[in-house]
Task: structure prediction
Amino acid sequence: MTPRNPHIILFAAIVLPGSGHVLQGLPQRGLMFLFFIVILSWASGHLMPPTSSFLGQHIGGFFVYGLSVIDAYKIARIRFAEWTHAQNSHSSN
Result:
């Protein structure tokens, strides 16, 4: 089965957190990231001073969001590279 293009996965992960993982068949991983985005955003919102910006108040969630995007793209790149390598090794035989 041909893996999805890593750039599509990257776009999906940026637009909707966790969707990059879901598109790759890893819904539990996507849901886990989404859960921690919500929890850490809520926690940092209650810990940061009220004078901080929106980004500052929800920095925990934004941090996990960034990790989620990187993770989804990394998995997609690895799967695509493995598939490409397998295709090249089959064609050379």
Notes: The chain has one domain: 6-85. Residues 6-85 form one domain. The longest helix spans residues 59-92.
